[in-house]
Amino acid sequence: MRTDRRGFLKGAVCAGGAAALLGQTGCTSFSGLMAQRRKSMIGFRAEPLEKVRVGIIGVGHRGPGAVNRLSRIPGVEIRAIGDLFEDRVARQIKALTDKGLPAPKGYFGSRDTWRALCESGEIDLVYICTPWLWHTPMAVYAMQCGKHAAVEVPAAMTLEQCWQLVNTAEQTRRHCMMLENCCYGYNEMLALNLCRKGVLGDLVHGEAAYIHDLRMSKLREDNENGYQGQWRLEWSKQHTGNPYPTHGLGPVCQYMDINRGDCFEFLTSVSSNQLGISRAAAEKYGKNSPQAKARYRLGDMNSSLIRTYRGRTILVQHDTTSPRPYSRINLISGTRGVLADYPLRVALAPDTHAWMKESELEALKAKYVHPLWDKNGEAAKKAGGHGGMDFLMDLRLCHCLQHGLPLDIDVYDSALWSSVVELSERSAERDGKPVKVPDFTRGAWKIAEPLGIVTV
Ligand SMILES: NC(=O)c1ccc[n+]([C@@H]2O[C@H](COP(=O)([O-])OP(=O)(O)OC[C@H]3O[C@@H](n4cnc5c(N)ncnc54)[C@H](O)[C@@H]3O)[C@@H](O)[C@H]2O)c1
């Protein structure tokens, strides 16, 4: 990555100085000091952190896994845990003290106590695992408080929120990384390696998806087993398009150097009718129940097609209400071959009329396994989290913070991949009319260098 050393040093000194002021003056001083600065975050390096002190907000279904994973990474200290519910926070504090680790401070009891967590002088990184609508407000405030922000997917639900993330990161010189764990999956990193090494030739087309039958999870009413306040079902009532595009899309963007040599130009999107959730509600509650009669705007299947400036295409699908096996599709196709997932298959020139035999695929995997998996795969599987990819994501994030390196997923990736939420809805509402995609890098994608193949 190109970096401006003088800019980094100035930024690091200024950020450190401002952060030191926080104990006395609160977060507005930090954002005030940084307000005039607006410089690209491409290749941004923050001051290295000897210890990464983390505050985690949201310990429902997703957050506790993060508590467990981060507690296993050397040089990382969990200093704070926040949630609406005291018992959830207490459970996670106990999980840490049971391992002999110090008890983090708990923040709970109201919708706004997370603000105090962000304001704490004890934290470098705010790690956000709350429902979708909280992601951007929490990440923005964390950055305004001088903290780096790591935020669950999607990082933003509207274009306005995407810009808020970008503008705040640029002004505060703080990282904002969307926690797109699927970029760290074994197959995805294998595909990334194949793309980097040119094995698939020049890339032409990718396919991505989130196909996951969540009908029963969406309908559960109790917070213990369901989503808190049924946040996912509520979104389905109010919106169409693709609310959750990044699991499949993020990895394809990395294969194609999106924001680092290419960028989305326009998108067109169509949604199918909606039957799945209404029928599931009718079965669960009866056909005359309010749940079955409610209006759900989210179509069962949404298909969006993105065209890039370099003429490549990406299909992104979303379906969480059909009886289908899980898939992110994960297909990448180039002038010399194709990789497709679910299950993993590869075909390479000149023999592209059939998929490779199992033995050839195994040999290819052994040759092109991503170095991060080769080195840390066993530890990752042990720590768990979707087969280990969640752990590798956290490991890599903390490594970059500890060494002052640019992050693999920066604020521009977080904004661009998330922008498909609103763009797909806008297009689907207008019978698939193409919509222009904003350039969050403000043109810097043309000079940014591709992600390297990292080894640690
Ligand atoms: N990357 C992945 O593989 C993956 C997997 C599952 C979920 N997720 C994402 O993680 C996020 C959380 O999902 P979940 O399934 O854990 O949801 P959940 O409803 O089970 O948990 C959300 C938690 O946030 C808490 N919360 C809500 N508002 C809060 C506030 N104002 N202050 C403090 N805490 C608050 C809730 O009390 C709850 O405990 C979502 O964005 C989801 O998309 C990502």
- State the shape: globular
CATH T-level fold name of the largest domain: Dihydrodipicolinate Reductase, domain 2
User: Overall pLDDT, averaged?
Assistant: 92
Number of domains: 2
CATH class of the largest domain: Alpha Beta
Report the portion of residues in β strands: 15-25%
Helix content: 40-55%
N-end to C-end Cα span = 17 Å
Which helices and strands appear, and what pairs or packs with what?
Layout: H1 5-25, H2 27-34, E1 52-57, H3 63-71, E2 76-82, H4 86-98, E3 105-107, H5 114-119, E4 125-128, H6 132-144, E5 148-151, H7 159-172, E6 176-178, H8 186-196, E7 203-211, H9 215-219, H10 231-238, H11 246-255, E8 264-271, H12 276-285, H13 290-293, E9 302-308, E10 313-319, E11 331-334, E12 337-340, E13 345-348, H14 358-368, H15 371-383, H16 389-403, H17 411-429, E14 435-436
Parallel strand pairs: 1-2, 1-4, 2-3, 4-5, 5-6, 7-10
Antiparallel strand pairs: 7-11, 8-9, 8-14, 9-10, 11-12, 12-13
Bound molecules: nicotinamide-adenine-dinucleotide (NAD).
